[in-house]
């Protein structure tokens, strides 16, 4: 069964990546071979030449030249060294569904491209990393089993080993370094220092790491040859591209379109209400105004001219029924919660930005305060996440200037926040809430010292709290444990601040509450005695 999060497939122009999907829910191996034939192995030099001829770029967002990746892995592996081909199917962007669609409905096209690269490199194995749920993972695993069964029956499928790895899905899970760490069995967060997968990736081996769509494109390029492949699209960026359209679109879909198509035509196909703007490139992308949308062209070059970045092909029209500023603040809060929490800009800066954005929605705060907070995180993070969040927020401030003025003058723009910006269902599990028993709190302030990002003290030293993301739960529990007045407890929320919390207990308030289950927490001896010079609460 196709999961609900994978939208229907539409197309403008010829069907390539989506060929056959109007007739089949999922292309099994016989159906795939009928459409695309058996893949013939290619020499490494031939694949590199093909990729160079059509200037093939990665489709995961960075648009890195694929031929250079192939050459870098081959050079790092040497003549007798091992390498690995890694398929990045960890679609952490809530507004993107193209990887999930390919893995669920057309997995063999992705595997064909990965196997082509593996055979050309002499790689040890192909690893497919998925984070799109059980259905996508099961579809890929079934595709691998179909290939094995075909060989047992006398078929001629490649015998390169293929391994499927399911990893935890979160926004940063698709970052290259985070993905490699997750596949290697480590925590799937970006490494503090940039490491090139081409030099040291899976199991420390040179690794060809590319996006799901990139490998599907490689299979098509080998099947068609450069000349036929370049028969559609623009001269500089030939071929087709997958776009995910959601948000204010009446008919959300994954759309295959030739490069060079007009963004307005794509939105019209989806019956999209543009409203105050269209987000291009996902939650690290930028907003285009309704006027800019009319002339914007679907290509890297075309989007750059319009003031955006195509990225992974994510298009989110807002529509007119929702508060644009409120939607941007929702995304800023989500991005703050998705941080790895391993550097100051993420731990301190992103929650501060989210707080200031929400203050604007409430009609307080100022744009200048948000811009100052953004400047404190730009180019200072351990990974791409702070810079990407900064780009999104700054673009929102520029795009929704008129609406911000309404909020600051009247406290509202008159429209509710309808939640049209896609969010993962698991967002309900991402936050905790600190609660205080005011009959016990003595205003010592240690909780604010331990959690300055989420606890503020009033003029009398008493705390007020903001929701705590899951990556800060350990520190929040520490604040609870160290409160000498035993006044704090930690409750689970739904991620929007309105979830069910614990009822106030008549016994000790020192409880950890998660998923509706209350568990007694240990209390350090010093905290029980109220000793140590500092105090919480």
TrEMBL record:
* Enzyme superclass (EC): oxidoreductase
Q: Where is the NADH-ubiquinone oxidoreductase 51kDa subunit iron-sulphur binding domain?
A: 325-370
Query: Which GO terms label this protein's molecular function in UniProt?
Result: hydrogen dehydrogenase (NADP+) activity
Keyword match Cell cycle: no
Kindly indicate where the leader peptide sits in this chain.
none
* Superkingdom of the source species: Bacteria
Q: Does the keyword Cell inner membrane apply?
A: no
Kindly state which keywords UniProt assigns to this record, in alphabetical order.
Answer: 4Fe-4S, Flavoprotein, FMN, Iron, Iron-sulfur, Metal-binding, Oxidoreductase
Q: Which cofactor does it need?
A: [4Fe-4S] cluster; FMN
Pfam families, per the entry: Complex1_51K, Fer4_15, NADH_4Fe-4S
Q: What is its EC number?
A: 1.12.1.3
Q: Which family does it belong to?
A: Belongs to the complex I 51 kDa subunit family.
Q: What is this protein called?
A: NADP-reducing hydrogenase subunit HndC
Q: What is the lineage of its organism?
A: Bacteria, Bacillati, Actinomycetota, Actinomycetes, Streptosporangiales
């Amino acid at each position: 069964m196709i999961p609900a999060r994978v939208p229907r497939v539409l197309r403008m122009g010829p069907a390539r990546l989506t060929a056959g999907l109007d007739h089949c829910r999922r292309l099994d191996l016989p159906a795939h071979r009928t459409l695309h034939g058996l893949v013939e192995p290619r020499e490494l030099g031939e694949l590199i030449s093909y990729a160079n001829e059509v200037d093939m770029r990665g489709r995961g967002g960075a648009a890195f030249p694929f031929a250079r990746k192939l050459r870098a892995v081959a050079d790092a592996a040497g003549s007798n060294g091992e390498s690995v081909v890694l398929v990045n199917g960890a679609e952490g962007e809530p507004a993107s569904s193209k990887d999930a669609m390919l893995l669920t409905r057309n997995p063999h096209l992705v595997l064909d491209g990965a196997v082509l690269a593996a055979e050309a490199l002499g790689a040890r194995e192909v690893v497919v990393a998925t984070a799109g749920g059980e259905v996508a993972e099961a579809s890929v695993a079934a595709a691998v089993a179909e290939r094995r069964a075909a060989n047992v029956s006398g078929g001629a499928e490649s015998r390169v080993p293929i391994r499927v790895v399911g990893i935890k899905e979160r926004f940063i899970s698709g970052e290259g370094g985070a993905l490699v760490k997750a596949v290697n069995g480590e925590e799937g967060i970006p490494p503090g220092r940039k490491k090139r997968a081409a030099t040291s990736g899976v199991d420390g081996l040179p690794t060809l790491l590319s996006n799901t769509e990139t490998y599907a494109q490689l299979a098509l390029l080998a099947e068609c040859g450069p000349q036929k492949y370049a028969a559609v699209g623009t001269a500089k960026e030939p071929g087709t591209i997958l776009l995910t359209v959601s948000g204010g679109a009446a008919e959300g879909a994954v759309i295959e379109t030739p490069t060079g198509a007009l963004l307005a035509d794509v939105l019209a196909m989806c019956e999209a209400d543009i409203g105050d703007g269209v987000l291009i490139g996902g939650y690290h992308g930028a907003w285009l105004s309704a006027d800019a949308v009319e002339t914007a062209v679907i290509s890297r070059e075309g989007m750059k001219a319009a003031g955006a970045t195509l990225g992974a092909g994510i298009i989110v029209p807002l529509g007119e029924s929702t508060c644009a500023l409120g939607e941007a603040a929702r995304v800023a809060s989500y991005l703050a919660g998705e941080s790895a929490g391993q550097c100051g800009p993420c731990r301190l800066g992103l929650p501060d930005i989210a707080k200031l954005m929400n203050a604007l929605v409430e009609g307080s705060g100022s744009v200048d305060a948000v811009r100052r907070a953004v400047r404190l995180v730009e180019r200072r993070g351990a990974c791409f996440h702070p810079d990407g969040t900064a780009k999104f927020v700054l673009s929102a401030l520029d795009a929704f200037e008129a609406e911000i003025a309404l909020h600051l003058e009247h406290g509202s723009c008159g429209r509710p926040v309808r939640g049209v910006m896609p969010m993962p269902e698991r967002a309900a599990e991402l936050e905790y809430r600190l609660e205080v028993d005011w009959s016990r709190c003595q205003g010592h302030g240690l909780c604010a010292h331990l959690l300055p990002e989420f606890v503020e003290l009033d003029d009398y030293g008493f705390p007020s709290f903001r929701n705590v993301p899951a990556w800060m739960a350990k520190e929040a529990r520490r604040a609870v444990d160290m409160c000498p007045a035993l006044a704090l407890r930690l409750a689970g929320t739904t991620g929007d601040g309105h979830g069910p919390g614990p009822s106030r207990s008549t016994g000790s308030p020192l409880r950890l509450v998660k998923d509706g289950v209350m568990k007694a927490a240990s209390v350090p001896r010093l905290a029980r005695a109220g000793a140590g010079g500092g105090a919480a609460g």
